[in-house]
Write a structure and sequence with these properties.
With 256 residues, the chain is of the alpha/beta class. The chain has helices spanning 10-18, 36-39, 53-58, 73-79, 96-107, 114-132, 159-165, 215-221, 232-236, 242-254, and strands spanning 5-7, 25-28, 63-67, 85-89, 140-145, 169-171, 200-204, 226-230.
């Protein structure tokens, strides 16, 4: 019997499809939009933070993939009441993608092609990591913004921050958010002394969609910095997009 998989995480949905498990998907969130052709016909069950549990239960999944950052703990607890297998993911640094591929490979090893595709994803990611580390870069102080009103950024133990570190970019503030919770994405007052030492501000395309209209506002926050728009999907989505994210970071940092 084939698994019936619900994915409540955009990165996981994309990765499951890359593993050849698209036909097994029976549910996704409204934010699970990639790859468009593969997920278009998969029912939506709300968002990552407001899952419609009744609708999900009716779809009778055998497996649900959740994430510590993206989904609420109470959602995962509720799922365990009616889903045989709840798969909890939590990549916190680029290297964790290798463990993720193995986690999903193990869970779905009986499905045709999964083992082979997991090996390919791991090899592609390893090659991209090697390319990203092909030469040393001078360290640069960076502010990566994910929200405005209030300004919000990333702690140094998040996937985004550790990915940027591979390009020589040290994110500020000097804070670690722990395994989960709001501290992983701290809010700024806007008058922190270290803002004057930031040399680059990165405005992400998600979860807040920064655009050209926000460049001047961010420039005022860090007057000495270079401000630029960046692809938030490539810098924050883990899993099968991890290799592309490293190559994107490499291109950004090489073009500094």
């Amino acid at each position: 019997m084939r698994p019936r998989i619900a994915s409540l995480v955009p990165s996981a949905t994309e990765t499951l499809v890359a593993l050849g498990l698209g036909p097994c998907l029976v549910a996704r969130t409204g934010f699970c939009i990639h790859p468009a052709g593969a997920v278009a016909g998969v029912p939506k069950v709300g968002g990552t933070k407001d899952v419609n549990l009744a609708k999900l239960r009716a779809l009778a999944p055998t497996h649900v993939v959740v994430n510590v950052d993206e989904n609420r703990r109470e959602t995962a607890k509720a799922l365990r009441g009616f889903v045989p297998h709840v798969i909890v993911t939590h990549p916190c640094r680029p290297q964790d993608n290798l463990a993720l591929f193995e986690q999903l490979r193990t869970a779905f090893a009986d499905e045709p092609g999964v083992n082979e595709r997991a090996q390919v994803l791991a090899a592609e990611f390893g090659a991209a990591l090697a390319r990203c580390r092909d030469r040393a870069r001078p360290q640069e102080n960076v502010l990566y913004l994910i929200w405005r009103q209030p300004w919000m950024t990333v702690a140094r133990d998040t996937y985004i921050s550790t990915l940027l570190a591979e390009g020589g970019w040290l994110t500020w503030p000097d804070a670690r958010g722990g395994a989960q919770g709001a501290d992983r994405y701290p809010a700024l007052r806007g008058d922190e002394a270290w803002l004057g030492d930031i040399s680059r501000v990165l405005l992400s395309s998600e979860p807040y969609r920064f655009g050209a209209e926000h460049l001047a506002e961010a420039q005022a926050l860090c007057p000495r910095a270079r401000v630029q728009l960046v692809d938030g999907e490539l810098l924050s989505w883990w899993g099968s997009r991890g290799a592309a994210g490293l190559d994107y970071l490499r291109a950004l940092s090489h073009g500094a």
